[in-house]
Design goal:
alpha+beta, 4 helices, rod-shaped
Length: about 90
């Protein structure tokens, strides 16, 4: 009887444990695997007038359904970096 209970418990808890492991390891969310490069290109195009380039682009999931992205951007000048609100405009 105990083996049946353990088998049921492991079977039911496996999806939750797998999702928690992906979040703790900060893996790229499954829905972003093919789209991260496209998102980087879209941001570079949208802000091409103020940014020279994007590098160190990372996407991960903090909680299920909430993705976070960070990047390093090289701006055209120090003034643009100080005064242009790229971060608030880049929220998707």
């Amino acid at each position: 009887m105990a083996l049946v209970a353990i088998t049921v418990f492991l079977g039911l808890s496996w999806p939750i444990a797998r999702e928690a492991t992906y979040i703790l390891l900060q893996t790229v969310p499954a829905e972003m695997d093919t789209d991260a490069a496209g998102l980087k290109a879209d941001l570079a195009k949208k802000f091409s007038s103020v940014m020279l380039g994007i590098h160190e682009f990372h996407v991960w999931s903090l909680v299920p359904g909430t993705n976070v992205a960070t990047l390093h951007a090289k701006f055209a000048s120090q003034e643009v970096r100080k005064h242009h609100k790229v971060g608030s405009e880049a929220k998707l």
